Protein: Acetate kinase
Organism: Streptomyces smaragdinus
Amino acid sequence: MKPSDTRALVLNSGSSSLKYQLIDMAGHDRLASGIVERIGEGPVADHGEALRIVSGELAAAGSGLDDERLAVIGHRVVHGGTRFTEPTLIDDEVVAELEKLVPLAPLHNPANIAGIQVARTLRPGLPQVAVFDTAFHATIPEAAARYAVDAATADRFGIRRYGFHGTSHAYVSRATAALLGKAPDEVNVIVLHLGNGASASAVERGRCVETSMGLTPLEGLVMGTRSGDIDPAVVFHLARTGGMSTDEIDTLLNKRSGLVGLCGDNDMREIARRIGEGDESARLAFDVYCHRIRKYVGAYTAVLGEVDAIAFTAGVGENSAAVREASTQNLRALGVELDPVLNAVRARSPRIVSAAGSRVAVAVVPTDEELEIATQAYSLAAQNRPK
Ligand code: AMP
């Protein structure tokens, strides 16, 4: 890697899609981005074919995979287990370790590994870095990370809170500190990442101390299609009384629950439209969704003791004034007071939407997971540059 090599390619490889973004790290310019979908169905047979399509699109944008200025490829990897808590340069041994983590994330990690392997084949010798969705949560204390289940069983099967969306929580908590004119280690922030997946985190002076997702991304907030928190006995009840198989219950809770389960829609825009027409199931879905967020804000306020800011991010958090309002209503006792006029303003930049007298700042902070992955990958590649 030469000082002139300033480009980072970020790959986010899912089971049926491959998202990419090429960023010039000198000025954080997005040079190209896109998504190849329906991998495994029809013309795009596998991740190898998908990456060749990406390579073609990059070449058309003037900077193909063979571009000498490309310094690093950063891969989003969902689950790092307890083994990976930092961005990691990928070699054969790392890939073997990632394979061992597949049982913890059977829906996600195999696709991540497939993306890594084809990228290594197409650009051998180029530094490739895995950036883990779990990594930012590695600082969560044991009291918050351990589930109160039989310790030997938990240890044997790796059962604990890992947390996800870590790249976003890291980026947004830092950006929120910057918005307040403070260093990350000077503030306590509750981050609410409300996208199609949704999670909350409590970040104490730059270190994550609690998060809502757990062993898998199913726990915590109500999401587009995931239930979030439920009594675990629901699973036994559905198995014993409903005669459902493990896979059926898995699909029910991950794909047919949350907003879509409650009202048939998982897009908050559509839910808002239906509420406007007086639709009761849409109203209930919205209320359940916001109630859960409020509950977590209260809990995380207690975890942190003192809160400087609550930051809303991702598709719903950045765009839905109604969700921000409903989920921070009646929190004056916690020092949280929204300014309805500021909250209603639509903008793309980080901004404060709380009232002047609010002890806790409420902020809208757009997330940028790709930039965070690129930054972490690029910095690791630069540190490992041959002298
Ligand atoms: P993400 O996973 O961060 O891309 O967020 C996707 C979700 O954001 C969608 O499913 C929508 O529910 C939500 N969303 C996007 N735009 C808006 C908007 N203008 N108002 C409300 N929700 C939105």
